[in-house]
Amino acid sequence: MRIGELSARTGVSARSIRYYEQQGLLAAVRTTSGQRVFAESAVERVRLIQRLFSAGLSSRRMSELLPCVTDPDIRTRWLTDRLREERTRMEAEMAQLAHAVAVLDEVVTDMTVADDAAPGGACP
After folding, report:
1. How many CB atoms lie within 10 A of CB 112?
2. CA distance 124 to 122
3. Number of H helices, E strands in the chain
4. Which residues touch 56 (CB under 8 Å, ≥6 apart)?
5. Helix residue spans in 12-76 (DSSP H)
6. Helix or strand (DSSP H, E) at 29
7. How far apart are the first and last CA of the chain?
8. Each residue of 40-94: pLDDT tens digit?
9. How many CA atoms lie within 13 A of 77 on its CB side?
10. How far apart are CA 53 and CA 61, in angstroms?
């Protein structure tokens, strides 16, 4: 199938599909005129890539993990360990964000002015 059909069937833009191919996440064969032709299996591959992006994985990490994710015969503890590492990394980022939100809440509380305060000064 051509890139337009793959895009329509997956709801993913042609631009994203070209990016996936560029990153080595998705393969296509080229016609003599240079057009991309994707196998039927590309539909599920694109959906998996989208799912992994939604889970917060980078394209670099995905290119490392996809062979193991897509082939149950070569799945190893290495794969689950890498996925757990990603989860731990995300939890640390969430903790940092939660701290930043708490600090911002403190700043907002300290900066709160009365609702009937007259506008003026340099602040819009």
Report:
1. 9
2. 6
3. 5, 2
4. 86, 90
5. 14-22, 42-54, 59-70
6. strand 29-30
7. 55
8. 999 999 999 999 999 989 999 898 888 887 777 777 788 889 889 999 999 999 9
9. 0
10. 10
